[in-house]
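[audit] Reproducing an earlier prediction to check determinism. Same input, same settings, fresh worker. If the C-alpha cells differ from the archived copy the diff job will pick it up downstream; this log only records the rerun itself.
[audit] input (133 residues):
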Amino acid sequence: MFSVSDMIPHFIHEPKSAIVSRDSEVKLSCSVFPSTAEIRWKLNDKFIDNDDRLQDLKATDSDSPISYLLIPSLPEECRDCMFQCVADTPWGTIISRQANISLAGTGNSIELDFFCLLLNICFLSFLEHVHVN
C-alpha cells in the first residue's frame, strides 16, 4: 500500500547542460517517479508547445516515464538556451535543474574562459623558464 509521501514526484534523471556546435543534434532526457507523472519541457521559462524544431519523445516501457527532447539543430535565436523538465502529478509539480545548451565558439561560453586561463598558465610557465635560463 502506498502513502501520499510515496507518490510525491521526484527526479530519477534530470537533463544536463552541454556546449554544442551549430548543426549538432542535442538530446535531453528526463525521468521521473511515479510512473503516472506527466512530463513537459520548458525553453527559457516557457512551455514548449507545437514547436516543429523540437521533438518530445516518450518512453513508457519502464517503471518510470522517460521523456527525451530531441533538438535536430539549435534554433538560430538560441545562442544560450535554458531547458527544464517539468513533472506534474496529482500530488505536486516539480521542475528540474536548468540544462543550459550553449553554442561552442560564441565567445560567451565557459570554454573561452577556460582557454584563456590555460593560455595564461602556459605563458607564465614560459616566462619562468626563460627567466631561469
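[audit] rerun output stored. Observation attached for the diff report: The chain has a mean pLDDT of 77.
[audit] end
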